[in-house]
Amino acid sequence: MDLPPPGPVDAPAAAPVDADAVVVAQQLVKRFGQKTAVDGITLAIPHGSFYGLVGPNGAGKTTTIRMMVGLLRPDQGNVSVLGRWVWPQPAPIKNDIGVLPDDLRLFERLTGRELLTYLGLLRGLERAVVDNRTDDLLETLGLTADGNTLVADYSTGMRKKVALAAAILHAPKVLFLDEPFESVDPISSRTITEVLQGFRERGGTVVFSSHVMDTVERLCDHVAIIANGRIARSGTIAEVCNGKRLDDAFVDAVGSPASAGGSLDWLHQ
Amino acid sequence: MIRLARLGAGMRWAITRNALRRRGLVVFVLTLLGAGLGALIGFGTLAAAQVAEADDRRVILTLTCTIIAIAWMFGPLLIGGADETVDPSRLALLPLSGRQLAAVLTGAAVSSPVTIALGIALLGGVVAGWAGPWGGVFGGLVSLLAMLALFVFGLGAARSVAALMGLANRTRRGRDLAVLIAALAGVTLWIGSQLIGPLVQSSGTRRGARIVDAMAWSPPGWAARAVLHARAGHPLAGLWWVLALVPVGAVLVWCWARLTGRLLVGSERHQARRAVGTGVVWPRATNANGAALAKAWRYQWRSPMKRTQTLITVVMSAGFALLQVLQLAGDEPAPKAVFVGLIALVFCADNAFNVVGFDSPSLWLEVTAGGGFGHNQLRARLLAYSFNVALAAVAAIFAVAIVGGVWAEVPLALAVVPGAVLCLLGIGAFLSAVAPLPQADGDNPFKRPAGSNGCIYGISIIAALVCVSIALAPVLVPMLAGDGRWRYGVAAAGTLWGWGLWRLGLHLADAVLARRGPDLLAELADRAAL
């Protein structure tokens, strides 16, 4: 697709209009001191897609997602979601997106039910709507019995699930999930997968990052491989894989580790 | 906006209620009683200025207003961190504009039990400014406005400091700076609270008058001036001080809003990965003891909580020792006052007596790697911590010497330090093995162990400190009772005595660890430490 030139963060031009793309990232750059975490990422995520962001540790996936959802200000470039620029005013776009961040900073001293209720009300939803949706979500995610338990006492999987519930409580159009399956048991993983597939079948778009190639290959129809803060490959799964398995395509794109020559001979003595 | 503020208040109350309930009914009741008692004491102290003599009234109002403001600003940091509603990053995913977010956070801020208690306390200032049934109405109104302005100032300052600390906590150096500021503020607050009585008595002296004069020029002091003018029947003069305080409060609230915005966007905690090592593991450990010591030494400086311990114990020890000198209110301290620097042992006891419980998850790894319980870990942790104790004691001794101008006994006091440190750590070794309290290491330098174990732990510390006092008595009594160079011999004997206690403590601790090994590990399991 043709993208307009990247707009500066503080003075955006008109957001790009693309009937097919729901999220458009343009030349995103983010530096932390001397390190360039994201180095000019340009990406278009089609409407209704299940889009996977994969890459080695420290490749820039989390930083990219944070810039897309208005949690981290890019040094250069901008992002448009649903035809609106995210920066410099990220608040309005948050009505239409749901986010499951990697560091789950939740209100630990609220119960799961209280957390969802307060977040729903703060989003401006009616009390009755919040109560109904909270019940639905807790039941769907298998948290009904733990609804009155403090978030601080939740296991990792339960925290992921309640954070996912908070992300979809307001029925967003686009979901951004950072490592949703990390540290999650198979049962919880299946539950999350079913919720995400249901979301997508109802017309939603899902963007998520993961290390697990099998999961990405199974769930996603589009994928972008990020390495060293840049897009190494992107497109549909078929285009990126080009007849290979995704993990092989991934290694082709990223390259094998240079130190693979170590033999560990001593281990077998 | 009002709806959002109400939601913020509701959320704040739910968090407070749940947090207190989780820590047990006793803690819940004690906290509420504490807040109520604090409110009454603050109210009573300010209101007492109504009937005090003019000079005393000035001292009472100035000191109390200043102390309330400082306590408000730094108290949350000193008692275990600010509440979850301070850092807006938990609300970062919501579509709230800056003003809407400010409404939520303001609702949460003014509805905190501590804020309510402080508000009640400040009402005492209105009583203090009441000058009589008729002419006093305007004075009372000015006093009320002064206390309202002080409330806004305190709220803005407290939240700005908390937000600033939140930002600072995102970097290693910032965390250290935050700890240092909090520790210094805590000591100032503590010394100030202890000096109210002596200063009231000695406000005629030059030193006392200077301190009160300085405080009277601070913004909380302006509120006190307004009340003083109102009480003296010059409410219009008081109004000018209120008008001066209002813009300061407004600026602080604006700062809070700006800092909140910075906390919200760019809440990225990931920093560029920085190489901190040189690639050489120093010291070149050749055995398990050396490796354990090298690791413990590194942790002493790299762990945020360990560095916090060091900074706080040094500042608190020096501050407490200084307090003893300042309380003399004009009298010169005796040369032997420098021995008060050994009070550092009290401030280090909390950590010295829990070296096994601290960062217990890493103990799992160390024990697993070592194959046994790894008593070398205990020795290493204690030895690494000995530097902390010695540093705190030496800093306190020099603080007293510098402020009091007494240097004659400093060498002797320094000579006692090694024995005292060994004595503390010997008893600490035993207690650490017998009654460890799981305490996770982490990024939050202000986090303290909590729960019902805390009470038992506190009692253990007191009992152990009594043991330390008894053990040090044979060294300290001759030092304080006698004169002459022979006391250097006593100090040397004290070091040997401390060495003996250190060895005995380690021996007993080894026995306990060997007997309780696996059970103790289970007790200190990762999840228990959370």
How does this model look, in words?
The complex is a heterodimer of chains A (269) and B (530). With 269 residues, chain A is α/β, with parallel strands linked by helices. Chain A has a domain at 21-96 and 172-254: 3-Layer(aba) Sandwich (Rossmann fold). In chain A, 31% of the residues lie in helices and 24% in strands. In chain A, α2 crosses α3. Chain A starts with 20 loop residues before the first strand and ends in a 15-residue tail after the last helix. The model of chain B is unreliable at 267-272 (pLDDT under 50). The longest helix of chain B has 38 residues, at 486-523. The radius of gyration of chain B is 26 Å and the shape is globular. Chain B has helices at 2-22, 25-48, 54-78, 98-110, 113-129, 136-168, 172-201, 206-216, 219-231, 235-264, 288-302, 304-326, 344-352, 360-370, 375-404, 410-434, 453-481, 486-523, 526-529. Chain B folds into two domains: 2-264, no CATH class; 291-529, no CATH class. With 530 residues, chain B is an all-alpha fold. Chain B is built from 19 helices and no strands.
